[in-house]
Model the fold of this input.
Amino acid sequence: MAAPYPLLAVRGTQGVRLRRPTAPPEEEEEEASRIQYPISPSKFSKVCIFSQDGSLFAWCDGKCVSVLETRTGKVLHIIQKPKTTALSFSPRGSYLATWETYIVTKDVPPGTANFHLWHVKSGELVTSFVHKKLANWMPQWSEDETICSRDVNNEVMFYEVPNFKQAANRLILEKVSNCFISPGESPFKIAAYVPGSKGAPSFVRMFKYPNLNAVGAAIANKSFFKADRADVLWNKKGSAVLIITSTEVDSTGGSYYGEQGLHYLAVNGESSGVALGKKGPIYSVDWNNNSTEFCAVYGFMPAKATLFNLKCEPIFDFGTGPRNSVFFNPQGTILCIAGFGNLRGNMEFWDRSKFKLISKPQASDSTFFQWCPDGEHVVTATCAPRLRQDNGFKIWHYSGEMKKSSSISAGEELWEVGWQPFPPGVFAAKPIIQATVSVAQVEAAKPAVYRPPGARGLPPTKKLSELEPAQNMKKNAVDESNLSKSALKNKRKREAKAKAKEQQIQDSALASRSSDQRDAIAMTNYIVGGSYSQQQPTSGDDAEKEKKIKALNKKLKAIEKLKEQQKDGKELEKNQLEKLKTEENLLSELQQLQLS
Done:
């Protein structure tokens, strides 16, 4: 039996509707006549969600919460909770949690429950609680639905399903902020994050349920001082977590957005900080579904992307570029590295097994990305309120072909899109298809970098761009992991010798040029590397002048870096924009010093 075509949920001012965008038109029309999915036209639709196996779909249209069976299109239940703003299914779809904004009025006294848990099969209310803030409202479940937890002040309460009247266990940690139950099979692990205070470090501590509060109950622990907030990501098997820590302010002054770190913690007690090859923020981290590797996008623009193993050792370097997101497909065979939001929407699809770049399409103005469960298609969307113009979504094949484009009518807005999930194994991994237009052809179509007339025809002495290619795309790239120590040492000696010879040839070519041509080439080298010189010896009397020239070069080099960051999509601060305005005066002053 052929695998089904996944549904796509679309929510906006036109209401909530379900579509099958990857199905051929004739099959989509045939199914539409067979299954009539109800459409909610209300522009007050606040939330919609699929169950984890995709068999159920729920939404709130401002009048009620509806629960639908996706196989038949039949509405199973209508829950009279019109103010619901958040929904969550349990892993097997047995329970539905709803959350409303906590308010106190004449008709709603203090202490009125705003968190409700419903039994999906019967539609009956199971229990209700008060949870005032939207943060951490969502209950945590074990994969078999035998354990459910919720955060309550400085403790986490655990219920053994179906008994929700009394907590069966509690995790008591002062100022515990978040708690995460591991996926996978029993025994289940609990990862709890506690922020630091009064000089004490923050930490993530692991426990094995139900042993939570006994002395020495923790099976693993990782502490860190620079952490005002932490995101904890379990791998699919529940054997390890990645912890992304961040501070509100960077004490070094290197970043306006604070300082971040990436840490690894396994259930066997192993822990490590992940050494990142470039300074700057951590934009995105994603586990492969095989649970043995993860990819991170990090560093000041252009950002670097690196694949790591469970020892936190780099497996592959994808180079740098304008990117801030990374996504493995559900089968773990294709990796997408992309730049959305304030970046251009460049997407790079990589064959994981061969580390080969498949395609480089561009989804401009995208604010959302998600892999389809089939592992072959993705959806990108431009959604409000992030962007209110040109709202719509596009369906892409990983080979770079755009399969479908849907735009929202003028005056309307798109708020959310999402694929229908499927259980693991429904969609098997398929052989990788290469792009119809090669990546080399796409790169060749890009405009050439401008060079002054006097410097044309000569090889540049330095890179004309900060972008670094992937490690297997560098000139004369060799897999160093297969080389012996002596072979690796000889290889690096040859590279150093070749580099010195290339520099000697360039210096000779520069010396043979006229004075004007030498100045043009030297200025090109300054623009790239920040070291302008007329290649003339200086005397001791000129020491002060050389000192001023060096200072000016340093300022101009900083301006060039800011211009590159601005070109790559980074938003500059006010003082940085003011610095850009001084470039003309600095160049004029430099020219006067060089001519004097």
